[in-house]
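haha ok so turns out i had the wrong file open the whole time. this is the CORRECT one, sorry everyone. sequence first:
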Amino acid sequence: MHEGLTILIVGSGAREHAISYAYEKSDKVKKIIIAPGNDFIAYQRKKEVIIDKDCNVKQPHSFLDLARKYKPDLIDVAQDDAIAAGTVDLLRKHGFLVFGPTQQAARIEWDKQWSREFMKRYDIPCPKFQYFSDHKKAKEYVTSLYQKNPKKLLYIKAAGLCEGKGALKTTCLKEALLNIERMKEFKEAGNFFLIEDGLVGEEFSYYAISDGESYSTFISAQDHKTVFDFDRGEQTGGMGAIAPTEVTKPFSQDIEKKLIARAIHGMQREKTPFVGILYLGGIISNNEVMNIEYNARWGDPECQVILPSLQTDYIDLIMACLQKRLSSIKIQQDKKIRVCVVGASKGYPRNYSSVVGKRIYGIEKVMPMKGITFFGAGIAVRNGNFYANGGRLFNIIGEGNTLLEARERAYQAMKFITIEGNNLHYRTDIGLRGIERSLKIE
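then structure:
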């Protein structure tokens, strides 16, 4: 591929900041556009980075207008709503080179009912489930389950896209009835919902890039989904991550064979080949690997601890995927360990509106620190100052030769960040489980 390339990335958060960072490292890339992006992504970049907010992730034609405006050499559709709305299909139809799965292939994420039935068809290990649209029948079902086992663990999940917040942990009948009612909060995404047996074990995230026929995997990661320490509180879009995680090492062959290969080959057999990044959210329960969910793009914040490790030129990897020669290129990643801590507005994921507009201090001190990468999400930039403009605001990524070193760097850097009125929230236990595991091994 020639040099001086222009890349258009569809999305707005810290994940898209990390993706743009991966493209920026390539000598072949000259200019990057992120749409709708956020103010901070363009701050202090080595190459030209343009933020264009004149679009809507649920309206594919808005990205077609941007593609015609900028005439990019490659468009990377990284955001789940945009993928589900058919943005990849529309842009390809009009002759643009696009990385990302089609709307039908992405059904593995945006329709959890279909996804679970797909897993049954291809013998992909997953929890027992039932799906409902009738709240009365769902309540009768959970009542019968809790009559047999009052302490049963369930997850009640909206079938559609909910920004990572649609899976509600349920441990008693009262909670189950409440969570069934809460499906209404997710509007159309919660019209259909699943009730699944809860699995106990250690969760992990696994990523593969596929050209529809072959695939290659990246290092594994571990997300921290709930808002408070020690996996307490509401589900969020993710409050932190580590990569790689040791928990997957003894199970890597099973993960690839049962959970990755069967999905890629199953999609191929269904005549909807998956081209793009396939995310596997898995769990090791009773010494067996099980599927929690598939997503059709990079996860956030796992992307932020995986992509910085990449030593293979990202544009070369993407082009090999689009040209169906993925098997000819090797993914190389460094040996460092990374810990991502997400800084959020106090009150996230519920009500944080009072924090929006508050000034954020200390970012300038953190960015130059050794072993630290800073990615922006909900940050507004005005006159060189930074302001809270969302729920998840930024990611601090610490890197090191050990998990302890990476974690220490991330949290030392976080000490320099404050939000006016003491409105910063973050988890203090990211990576702690991995450290405890290593101490037990020793």
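Residues 158 and 166 are 5 Å apart (CA to CA).
again sry for the mixup
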